[in-house]
């Protein structure tokens, strides 16, 4: 993209205002959703895979790098 723009002071102020707001869920889970979540079990292979990918990402150069 070659077109660069400079944000207006109104845009900057709106960004700062938005950044200061708390980051909460838009709604609480329904009873049905909460009950469904309670029955879920995590797969140990998922945690292992996550750790492997985080380690791989930590040693990447360029876009895939985890700072």
How do the strands and helices of this protein lay out in sequence?
Elements: H1 9-19, H2 31-38, H3 44-58
Task: Provide key terms for this protein.
0% strand; 67 residues; mainly alpha
Please give a quick description of this structure.
The protein has 67 residues and is an all-alpha fold. The protein has helices at residues 9-19, 31-38, 44-58.
Report on this structure.
- It is a single chain.
- With 67 residues, the protein is mainly alpha-helical.
- The chain is built from 3 helices and no strands.
Tell me roughly what share of residues is in helical segments.
Answer: 40-55%
Report the count of strand segments: 0
The oligomeric state is single chain
Radius of gyration: 20 Å
Task: List SSEs in N-to-C order.
Answer: HHH
